Structure formats: structure tokens, C-alpha cells
């Protein structure tokens, strides 16, 4: 993600953080912290754009880079704790990413069928409805302190070769269906409350990931020759 997008998402979370009163301490702009109260980026009544601008203006290059990776570093001088960007919710909140832990009051989450099967319904209403349920559970788990608010979902790589080991995560080989699926599922995850996100979706992956290397090691080490 570009830095400005990351910062926008961070600032949108500050709104979220200010709404959740119990379970979790907010990861930034903690009302109990006198210093945070004075930062412009913590003023929830200001437009997001001004808050993002203020925060970007305060961050050093090093701090910006630190925020661009999974397991983002804390920025204590701005009252920001570390944040784990990586959670997954392709067809239900999953614990394969380090940002989500099942256990205690949250032994698991609803697991919908693999995306390749729900995509075959060609039913965009259904795709959005599934996204809504997933984000309801994600928010409940966030409030309980066991999940993040950023999900590396949906997977919209075009399924070009049936031997690719992740094809079942995708809506299939048709770019039109994949596009419609992506729009509906992202809307289901993020909600329709203007710029306030229910959770943040992230369509993945960069292009040319959707093959495996038949002669060598795995899909992480091959020349895609686009
Ligand atoms: C925050 O601003 C208030 C009002 O201007 C001021 O009294 C206070 O000292 C400031 N706090 C910090 C930690 O800078
Ligand atoms: C599409 O899915 C919605 C939500 O589950 C359902 O109400 C509707 O009947 C489905 N449409 C078709 C044509 O099956």
C-alpha cells in the first residue's frame, strides 16, 4: 500500500478506537493520554484529510517505512502503539494471519464455503451478505481484543491455471465475475458508512502471482515473464 493510503487507514482506525470504550485500549489517540489529546490528527471532529495531513507531517521517513510492514512498529513519541496489519478473512475470519487469535470467548468464526464455490452462484447480493457477516464477526473479535481491523481479503487474482495452489480462494477465471465479486465482498467487509470503515479490506495480490513454478521450488521464487 502507498504510505498515504496506510496513513488514511490508520486515521480511520482512530475513529474506531475512539468508539470502543472497554476491552481494548486504542492503539493511538488514547483519551487517557494527555499528549495525544493535543495532536490535530486525534481530533475526531476534523475532516479525515486534515488529520491524515497532520499525521504524515509529523512522521519521519523511518517511521513511515516502519508502518508499511506487517507488525508495524510503535511510534511512542506520537502515542501510537504497534499494530499488526495482517489478518485474513477470505471466506470467514481466519487465524492464519498473526493479527487474529482464536481462543477464550472466540473459539472460532463462521467459515463460509471456499470462494470458488460461492462465486459460482453469480449472486452479488449473496457475496455482499457474506462480507457483512464476516465483518460483524471481525468487529466483535476486535472489540474482544483478539483480531485486527485490516484484512488481506479478497483474493482477486485471475485463476488462469488450475494447477495454481490457491485457485479455490478466488472467484475464478472470469475477470468480469472477479471484478463484481471484489466490489461486493469489499462493500460487505467495509460497510457503507461513508469514509468510516467497518474493517479495511485489501484486494490481493499484485499481478502475476497466480501460477506455481512447475520446475522448481514454489510460487514465491519464479520469473513471471509478464
Ligand atoms: C495540551 O494542550 C493544553 C491546552 O492548550 C495544555 O494546557 C497542555 O499542557 C497540553 N498538554 C501537553 C501534554 O502538551
Ligand atoms: C441471492 O442471494 C440472496 C442472499 O442470500 C438471496 O436472498 C437471493 O434469493 C439469491 N438470489 C438468487 C437468484 O438465488
Automatic annotation (TrEMBL):
<dbReference type="GO" id="GO:0009044">
    <property type="term" value="F:xylan 1,4-beta-xylosidase activity"/>
</dbReference>
<dbReference type="GO" id="GO:0045493">
    <property type="term" value="P:xylan catabolic process"/>
</dbReference>
<dbReference type="Pfam" id="PF00933">
    <property type="entry name" value="Glyco_hydro_3"/>
</dbReference>
<protein>
    <submittedName>
        <fullName>BETA-D-XYLOSIDASE 1</fullName>
    </submittedName>
</protein>
<dbReference type="GO" id="GO:0031222">
    <property type="term" value="P:arabinan catabolic process"/>
</dbReference>
<feature type="signal peptide">
    <location>
        <begin position="1"/>
        <end position="23"/>
    </location>
</feature>
<keyword id="KW-0378">Hydrolase</keyword>
<dbReference type="InterPro" id="IPR044993">
    <property type="entry name" value="BXL"/>
</dbReference>
<dbReference type="GO" id="GO:0046556">
    <property type="term" value="F:alpha-L-arabinofuranosidase activity"/>
</dbReference>
<dbReference type="InterPro" id="IPR001764">
    <property type="entry name" value="Glyco_hydro_3_N"/>
</dbReference>
<keyword id="KW-0732">Signal</keyword>
<dbReference type="InterPro" id="IPR017853">
    <property type="entry name" value="GH"/>
</dbReference>
<dbReference type="InterPro" id="IPR036962">
    <property type="entry name" value="Glyco_hydro_3_N_sf"/>
</dbReference>
<feature type="domain" description="Glycoside hydrolase family 3 N-terminal">
    <location>
        <begin position="106"/>
        <end position="218"/>
    </location>
</feature>
Amino acid at each position: 500500500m502507498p504510505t498515504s493510503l496506510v496513513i488514511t487507514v490508520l486515521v480511520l482506525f482512530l475513529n474506531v478506537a475512539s468508539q470502543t470504550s472497554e476491552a481494548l485500549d486504542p492503539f493511538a489517540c488514547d483519551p487517557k493520554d494527555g499528549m495525544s489529546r493535543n495532536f490535530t490528527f486525534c481530533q475526531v471532529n476534523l475532516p479525515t484529510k486534515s488529520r491524515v495531513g497532520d499525521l504524515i507531517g509529523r512522521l519521519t521517513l523511518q517511521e513511515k517505512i516502519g508502518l508499511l510492514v506487517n507488525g508495524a512498529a510503535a511510534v511512542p513519541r506520537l502515542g501510537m502503539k504497534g499494530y499488526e496489519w495482517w489478518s485474513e478473512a477470505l471466506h470467514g475470519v481466519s487465524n492464519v494471519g498473526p493479527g487474529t487469535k482464536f481462543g477464550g470467548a472466540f473459539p472460532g468464526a463462521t467459515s463460509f464455503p471456499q470462494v470458488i464455490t460461492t462465486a459460482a452462484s453469480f449472486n452479488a447480493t449473496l457475496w455482499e451478505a457474506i462480507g457483512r457477516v464476516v465483518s460483524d464477526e471481525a468487529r466483535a473479535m476486535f472489540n474482544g481484543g483478539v483480531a485486527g481491523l485490516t484484512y488481506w481479503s479478497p483474493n482477486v487474482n485471475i485463476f488462469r491455471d488450475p494447477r495454481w495452489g490457491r485457485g479455490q480462494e478466488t472467484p475464478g477465471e472470469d475477470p468480469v465475475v472477479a471484478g463484481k465479486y471484489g466490489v461486493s465482498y469489499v462493500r460487505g467487509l467495509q460497510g457503507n458508512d461513508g469514509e468510516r470503515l467497518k474493517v479495511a479490506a485489501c484486494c490481493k495480490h499484485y499481478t502475476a502471482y497466480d501460477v506455481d513454478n512447475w520446475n522448481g521450488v514454489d510460487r514465491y521464487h519464479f520469473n513471471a515473464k509478464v
